[in-house]
TrEMBL record:
Residues 18-78 form the HTH tetR-type domain. The keyword DNA-binding applies. InterPro entries: Homeodomain-like_sf, HTH-type_TetR-like_transc_reg, HTH_TetR, Tet_transcr_reg_TetR-rel_C_sf, TetR_C. This is TetR family transcriptional regulator.
Length: 208
């Protein structure tokens, strides 16, 4: 999935309220990317957004509220999973999007992930967003099954997707290693081979 945390929303309805929200959330993204969670303040966001701080406090109440709304806004974009015609191609494209979002400097995606460890509200919102993105990407596995690329009829889509994308986060977030341009395809291929061998198959009673 394109990283669900590294995006701005194109779906901004008209009206002053929507414009203020867009300005404030853009300011939160910029503040997080530049200074991390430690530097994120209501006053700093208000100043960058060009709105009165009372407006920010009234609508978002605290930094946790700002983080939650930024994450919710990421879920509002019209993002669609890749459709390259093969599971390997789809997973490779997905991994390339993830890698790009994690290596860009400054990385808003990394900053927001770190911030979620300091805010229970943000952590819950981030969990909801990840669950939604994985659910969206299950179509990749469904299409692959229809094409005969996977064992029929029961493949655990969530497990396959996690296996395909996890190496990117392990390499770039946990190990903080330099990006490997070959990793997106290698991780995708490994997951496809494992799926083809039945590693993510579920028994009928489990899938019922």
């Amino acid at each position: 999935m394109t990283d669900p945390l590294d995006t701005t929303s194109d779906r901004r309805p008209g009206g002053r309220t929507a414009r203020v929200r867009a300005q404030v959330l853009d300011a939160v993204r910029a503040e997080l990317a530049e200074g991390g969670h430690e530097g994120l303040t209501m006053e700093g966001v208000a100043a960058r957004a060009g709105v009165h701080r009372a407006t920010v406090y009234r609508r978002w109440r605290d930094v946790g509220g700002l983080l939650v709304d930024v994450i919710d806004a990421a879920g509002e974009i019209d993002w669609r999973p890749p459709d390259t015609g093969s599971l390997r191609g789809d997973l490779t494209a997905l991994n390339r999007e993830i890698q790009e979002s994690l290596v860009v400097q400054p990385s808003f995606a990394l900053a927001l992930m770190a911030a979620s460890f300091h805010s229970e509200q943000a952590a819950r919102a981030q969990t909801r967003l990840w669950a939604d993105r994985y659910a969206q990407c299950e179509i990749l596995v469904e299409r692959a099954t229809e094409r005969g690329e996977l064992p029929l009829p029961h493949t655990d889509a969530r497990s396959l997707l996690i296996a395909a994308t996890a190496p990117l986060y392990h390499q770039l977030v946990l190990l903080r290693a330099d990006p490997d341009p070959q990793l997106p395809e290698r991780a995708a291929e490994a997951a496809v081979l494992a799926a083809g061998a039945g590693a993510f198959s579920v028994r009928r009673e489990e899938s019922a």
